[in-house]
Amino acid sequence: MLRATFLPPELGTGPLALPPALALHGARDALVGPSYPETLRRRMEEAGGTCRVHLYPDQGHAFDPATDADATARGVGFLKRAFGPI
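Above: the chain sequence. Below: its structure as tokens.
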């Protein structure tokens, strides 16, 4: 699960082979723009991987408490589906 999807330049621009990922992102994030999780998804899919992206339309870089609770629940669900009961 990725809470920040900034991709360092050392990773290049081609396909990106990573374990399954979940990117939870605020669409109003001025620090890490909403194109970053979409780029991550595209690059992972190009490498044959999977990346789920959920954008919170009214959130910025930091989530409010209700959104943070939703993101935590989504993260736990993702981990359970990907790796079994935790």
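The chain has a mean pLDDT of 88.
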